[in-house]
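Section: Multi-chain targets

For targets with more than one molecule, the full set of components is provided together so that the structure can be written out for the assembly as a whole rather than chain by chain. Components appear in the order listed by the source. The example entry contains two components.
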Amino acid sequence: MAINVNNIYQTVLLILNKEQRGYMTPVEFNKIGTQVQLEIFETYFDSLNQQIRIPQTNTDYADRVVSLDEKISIFKRFDNTVYSNGSFSMPVLSVPASQSFQTTGNASYTLTTISAEQLAEQSTVTLNDTVVTNYSFTNNVLTFTAGSVPAVSKPNLVVYFGTNSNGAGAMPNNNAFQIGLLNGDGPFPIGYSISSSTATNSGSPTVSTVTGPYAAAGVNYNQITFNVAQPAWQTPSKVDVIGTVKVTSTGSGFYKLGTVIYSNNALAQQEVERVDRGNLFHLNSSNLTKPSTTYPVYVLENNRIIVYPQTIQTGISASYIKKPSDVIWNFTLGANGQYLYSGSGSTDFQIHSTEQTELVLKILLYAGVVVKSPEIVQIAAQQVQQENINQKR
Amino acid sequence: MSIPNGGLITETNRQYYAGAQQFYIDTSGGGKTFTSTFNTDLTFGSSDSLNNSYLLNNFKIFTSPDALTWLELTPTAVISNTVVLAPVAGLVVANNQTMVILVGDNKVVPGMLIQNAAGTTTYGSVVSVTSNTTFVVNILVAIPAANPGTSLSLKSTSPWAMTGNVVTITSFLALGSYVKIQMNQSAIENNYGGYEYTRLVDVIDNFLIAYVGVGKLLSSVKRSDVIFHAKRGLQEFSYDTLRSIRSQELTVNSALSVIIPQDYVNYTRLSWIDGMGVQHTIFPANNLTTNPYENPIQDDVGTPTQDSQDSNVTGTSQTEAAWAANNPRRISGAFLNDFDSANLLYNSLYDTALGQRYGLNPETSQKNGWFTINEREGRFAFSSDLAGKLITLQYVSDGNGYDLDMRIPKMAEEALYSHMIYAILSVSRGVQEYVIKRFQKERGAKLRNAKIRLSNLKSDQLIQVMRGKSKWLKY
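Its structure, encoded as tokens over all components, is:
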């Protein structure tokens, strides 16, 4: 259902480039695309409010309320909330979104399967299953702070067995817990996974300690001890030493809260009514309307759901609208320095496919501003207006 | 017809009549969960019958190997207990250590207490079960070394628990055995006849579904407003439309009073019960006497006196004392030794004289006694001839006292919806007066209909009553 980001970009460029009006870079397109998608998305709710008051035809495909609901349904979710300190969080993902990648030695990594909104709400970063804190997110880019950048992962390193130069004698071949890696390969941080691509691995060995460099038999090497005994990593075995960064987020990309539901195992579910503080005071003051587990209410404050009676501390779920993810037209550089579309790392437009024409027109509207072409702006504005009139007539 | 199949009835015949729901164990093990589908929500205090909270349960759990012989599941039940041999070397005091026994035992489950055979020493508890021979245990008192190992008695102190109508049985359940949730008798009886009613929470949900929404008369109403008007409606209906079903059987003590019931709103009838169980209406004393609301002590010039807290000093009521001491026969003019029974075969000679005592006030010429309501003390007070008598107090509540009360007879459900529509429309802004009037009339009509329905006027009963008109009273 999503709209392919490359199709839109190519269409925009096609129209824009006709008669050599100008060019829109991928960065400009990504920002404008995100902006336009949000603009269209945010009109849904006001349009629904208008349409719901107008009698609709009960004919397939012609009911505007149903059409709008179909467009919004792409972003509808239902998830649980998390209780802490007397209130519940906004809905979080029951199955966390996660993305893993090997360390490259770079400070920054672009996340493609977790949106910036999700990352901002609730996220955890681990390096080799150990939680780290020295990082920051800028939109959907993870950047480790200077001095905390993870070491690069290295594949196909040659295993070395020889004589230990520290006087401890010869390091035996086929040592179950130790190998040597030639100088320059390492040292590696503790916790990096280490596996042989040429011999049998036992369990999931990781680096426990690294010592060296040592000199033996005319070569320098680092000695690595790992946590699980390995059967036969003899010379000329090769090993991969891999660091893994994993970003996990239970953030839901929350945008609008819908219905809040209270359920306690097999007991009947109850809708939790939204009230404000003033109402809550009066509701609490009356015996007839005082919130109970049968008729609970909630107050929404500081992005938290405060449920009354406060004895309710589990079982609160909520329907909500998720915010569309930022649009990314990802690229690689071609031989001549040109931008080549890369599907990997790109994020399509998430709005309904029927919005494609409006999407192109609105992007052109902004593109006209970017390339300083009043003609484009005027034509696009007229088309957008005409479409709006048609949709709401 | 015994299986619920999508209709309004959700209980099987067995659930309704016997209060039992049975489960078959198709895979052995502990920690199994069973979901109750009774109309009545389960309440849970403890699974240990020796624990005082056990009395909070409104159900019991039974197990059976064949669904014929049932045994209640308590900490002393066979399946909650097992005996194993400790390792020969014993176990030292430590948490999360592994205990390996020689002979496998499937009945060991997490949470079991580890005791000596006599049950006098508790060594620790089972944390988790790795296999039927290997367990992770916390040991608080060292288990001594012995050959072939100290005999240990393992028992579940809480063999089952319940939250949200889901029963979790921690004890080991064998393949092919059965589990039964058995409601207590009072819970079963509370559910009998429940189909006659619709729960108020369902009325509220139905109302929101059917009457509130875009394109409907009520486009938007807060749920709390609907709840308020539904509860108010139930209160009003309780006073004059619904059948009065609340009553208490009491004995009038020597102080000639009984306490007003907790959920009392108004009485419908007080009666004393004779030896044949027939009730005789006790009448209010009305203007004969009264129960003063305050009895201030006065000084010599008639001014009320105050105590050290500046409040009036009050004494006992002389009016009440005099009324309690009187002989009501002096007011009613009743004979001394007439019979207190409705048994027609025991009429006395005096009966022939009844009706021949001219000059009595008919309003007070009755022998059933009088009652007053003492608002000062929150009691019903009775005349002295009712001392020691068995009485029944029939009264109305407001339908909001207990969760079980919050239901409406189906005969009056439509009237309650109409009441709620009218009540909400009449306080809503911008609703035309003619619309309000329309629903006011509809409410009145449906309420009248409900009253007629609930009056239980049956044609055969009317015929029976009307047979009396053909009886010759005078020759």
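The first helix of chain B runs from residue 13 to 17.
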